[in-house]
Amino acid sequence: MASLALQKSTTVRLLRAGFGLAELLAPRVGARVAERIWFTLPAAPRRRPLPACGTGFEVRSQAAVVRGRSWGEGPVVYLVHGWGGRGGQLAAYVEPLVRRGHRVVLFDGLSHGDSDAGPSGPRSSNAVELGRALDDVAARFGPAHAVVAHSMGAAATALALKYGWLGTDRLALVAPLTRLDTLFDGFGRLLGFGPRTRGQLEARSARRVGLPVAELDLEVLLREVGAPLPLVVHDRHDPETSYTESAALVAGLPGARLHTTEGLGHRRVLRDAAAVQAVVDHVTAGERQEALPASA
After folding, report:
1. Angle at 135 between CA 269 and CA 102, to 5 degrees
2. How many whole angstroms from its chain centre is CA 213?
3. How far is Cα 156 from Cα 107, in angstroms, rounded to an integer?
4. H or E segment at 176?
5. In this structure, what is the dihedral angle of CA atoms 206, 121, 85, 4, given to the nearest 10 degrees?
6. How far lies 126's CA from each of 3, 12, 78, 118, 218, in Å?
7. Inter-residue contact 3 to 38 (CB < 8 Å)
8. Are 146 and 124 contacting, i.e. CB atoms less than 8 angstroms apart?
9. pLDDT over 90 (residue 10)
C-alpha cells in the first residue's frame, strides 16, 4: 500500500539494490523491511473544510478512539475514506445527502486524521483495522442505508460486511482497491524483490492482519456477503488504483454499474460534481425526495 507513495522517491534505486541482494541471500530480512514500508501510511492529505452544523463524536475501537462527525437525520449513510486519507475528503457528499433526508456519518480511521493511533502504531494501518473502525462507528449510529467508500475503504467496507455487524442496502465505491494481489505485484516490481521475498512478505502480512492476501479480493468478498450491487466510480487514468480492475469487477457482478470519469485521478474524483451526483442518485434511487435545508 505504501508503494504508491514511493514511486517518486529518490531512494528507490537504493532500495531496489538492497532488495535484490536480500532476495538472493536473506529473503526473510527483505520481507521484514518490505512489511514496514508496505504498512507505513503516506503523509496525511491537507484538511478540507467540512459543512457547518455537524455534530462531533467519539467511538471506542480496538482500545483507541475514532473521531468523526455526523449531519442530518434519517436513514444513515456512512462515508469511508481510503489508505492514508481522512473522512473530510468525502465532504462533498454530505449536503446533497442531508438534503435528501439522510443522516451522514464520516470518520477518520485509527492512525488517520484526528483519530488515535491504532494497534499498528501512529504511522501504520491496514484494511482490517479500518473495517473494524467502521463496524464500531456503525454500532453507534445504527444500520446503514448506504456506504460510500473510497479506495482501500472499499475493501475495509467489504470486510466489515463479512466479519462485522454491518449491513447495508446500497453501496457506492469510488476508485476502489479491488485486487490486493496485483498491488503486491506492483510493490515487488517497484522495490525489485522476487518470489522468495514475496512469499515471506505475504506470510508476514497475513499474520499481521489475520487474513491472507487471497481473501482480500473485493469481488469475492462482495459475492460472499451478498452485498447490494454497487455503483463503481473510477477515473480512466487513475494512477493509484486500477480502472481496468474496476471495470472487471462490474462485469463480474451483473447489475452493478460503472461511472467513468476522465482526468480526475484518484482524489479529485471525490469532489467532481457529476461523480458526486451519480453517487447521490444511486444512494437515493426510488426514494421520495423532500426539500430539506442543507444545514439540517
Report:
1. 60
2. 16
3. 13
4. none
5. -60
6. 14, 23, 19, 10, 15
7. yes
8. no
9. no
Q: What is the pTM of this model?
A: 0.92
Quick: pLDDT tens for 97-156. 999 999 999 999 999 999 999 999 999 999 999 999 999 999 999 999 999 999 999 999
In angstroms, how far is the first alpha carbon of the chain from the final one? 37
State the pLDDT confidence band at 266, using cuts at 50, 70 and 90.
Answer: very high
Nearest to 215 by CA among 128, 135, 149, 118: 128
Res 290 pLDDT > 90: no
103 in Cβ contact with 26 (< 8 Å): no
Q: How far is CA 247 from CA 202, 254, 290, in A?
A: 26, 12, 34
How far is Cα 6 from Cα 176, in angstroms, rounded to an integer? Answer: 20
Which residue bears the cell 457547518?
Answer: 52
DSSP annotation string for 77-91:
EEEE--TT--GGGGG
Q: Residue holding cell 473544510?
A: 49
CA 238 to chain centre: 15
Per-residue model confidence (pLDDT) at position 292: 47
Q: What angle do CA 256, 105, 108 make, to 5 degrees?
A: 100
- In terms of DSSP H, where are the helices of the chain? 3-6, 12-25, 27-38, 94-99, 127-141, 152-163, 180-191, 195-209, 218-225, 243-251, 273-284
Residues 6+ apart with CB under 8 A from 281: none
